[in-house]
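Q: Could you write out the predicted structure for this multi-component system? I'm mainly interested in how the pieces pack against one another.
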Amino acid sequence: MGMTGITIQEASRTSGLSAHTLRYYERIGLVPEVGRDAAGHRSYTGADLAWLEFLTKLRRTGMPIADMCRYAELVRRGPETAAERRRILQAHRERVLERIAQLNGDLAVLDRKIDMYYGMESS
Amino acid sequence: MGMTGITIQEASRTSGLSAHTLRYYERIGLVPEVGRDAAGHRSYTGADLAWLEFLTKLRRTGMPIADMCRYAELVRRGPETAAERRRILQAHRERVLERIAQLNGDLAVLDRKIDMYYGMESS
DNA sequence: GCTTGACTTGGAGTGCACTCGAAGGTGCAC
DNA sequence: GTGCACCTTCGAGTGCACTCCAAGTCAAGC
């Protein structure tokens, strides 16, 4: 098993999260304890990075940290929590859809305003 | 000119912003000074409400308060700032488009994950 | 004329999600 | 063997956008 793993700096570059944030996420239980190398330094595996990538998607779509912690906790508890996890993601999915619809509506208003300014400039 | 105006509570219900937030927005110069009735209470006009509605769209689409203040300042300075306002809105529009694209991408991942959970449950 | 309730102000407090600082350990380059 | 870069922990600090509080004013109803 040559799963060497990468340093926190490399994980930071790969994930787009700062090293500070990576430690913070681990501290609050959002990320399971990351393995260590001989020097006691964190060593991120591919699985760690995949989990971080999924977390950033949840985060970016507006899921609060507290909800993400709850989801992470269910993952730790094992496969019998799959149905609940699905429900959480589905509820979140609905919120994201609403958000996208709202953004599209607001974008239309923005476009009309921009057009109006063009009209003012060319008059 | 029978522009009576509505109370801060009614403006709160109409705009979806709390009375606290309405006063806060006025304090930081995001909303021009609202008129007062005989008792010194704020009296919101239709124009005030329209401005608030536009502000909430900027806010909801992720524009920081500081940028909104800058935009509001340009509006106060008059029509000669129209071109700059347009540029601000256009730059913002680009960010909103990116945000929507990102949300759609993240939504697709969410959907695949949900499908995966369905697969786990039915197996 | 007194209670009630909505309003006023200025300033302080809150919640979220980081973000940073201090003090110290480790291993490689010179 | 010592400087250096990078890591560690713990706790404190930051920035944003509100959100609330205390103390006071005012008009209307009983």
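A: Regarding packing and overall arrangement: Residues 18, 20-21, 24, 38-41, 59, 64-66 of chain A lie near DNA strand C (CB under 10 Å from a C1').
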